[in-house]
Amino acid sequence: MKLPARPAEAFPPVRIAGGQVAEIVAALRDDIVQGAISPGEPLRQESLADRFGVSRMPIREAIRHLEVMGFVTVEDNKRARVAAVSLSDLTDIYEMRLVLEVLAMRSAMAHLTNAQIDAAARIQDRISGVDALEFGIRNQAFHMELYRPCARPRLLAQIDILFNAADRYLCMAKAAPGQREKSDREHLELLEACGRRDGDAAADCLRRHIGDALSSFQGQFAPEGY
Q1: Could you tell me which residue ranges the HTH gntR-type domain spans (predicted)?
Q2: Among the four 49, 99, 171, 226, which has the fewest Cβ within 10 Å?
Q3: What are the structural domain ranges in the chain?
Q4: Is the full-model pTM beyond 0.85?
Q5: What is the pLDDT of residues 79-96, one digit of tens each?
Q6: What secondary structure does DSSP assign to 168-222, as a single string?
């Protein structure tokens, strides 16, 4: 599946007063996720510096962050390109999510407070009816609210990277009929399991939730030899 690319003039210069690297990373991440910058397309430091109105130093730092997040590959000649997308990459992301998120949920369960469960429920209340990019952001916020009490920063950092990587495929895919509603029901089941502090039920719910999403995406991409 080929992502559409926007012409260069679609990127107006942006002036960033503070938090330069973080804001550049966020802007480029959104462009990559939404297909505004296509897989394999080079990221030229000069053009990006002009776009954001900064020197090359924060651009280089932003590219390093994007490489760690899996959005960019840096070749031997130091040229950066948007990372390719593939069915095998999609499968890796979701199979890793399944293992790591179940681990995080089990680790968090004993420390989860009612306030944190309520916070996740409020995020869930605002998740319906949004576009794919915003859904990915809110979906990640919902899950991370429940995982954060595990207090395992390395584990949480890896889950965060996987969520970001999954957003590319989320924006490329078309939601199957009833898929969002099914996701909503599974989120509510997860909240109920957390309310009971039932780690086994929460783990089972997550396995179904993530596994069903993977199956849905694989069904869309596999026929195209993706």
Answers
A1: 18-85
A2: 99
A3: 8-82, 87-224
A4: no
A5: 999 999 999 999 999 999
A6: HHHHHSPPPTTHHHHHHHHHHHHHHHHHTT-HHHHHHHHHHHHHHHHHHHHHHHG
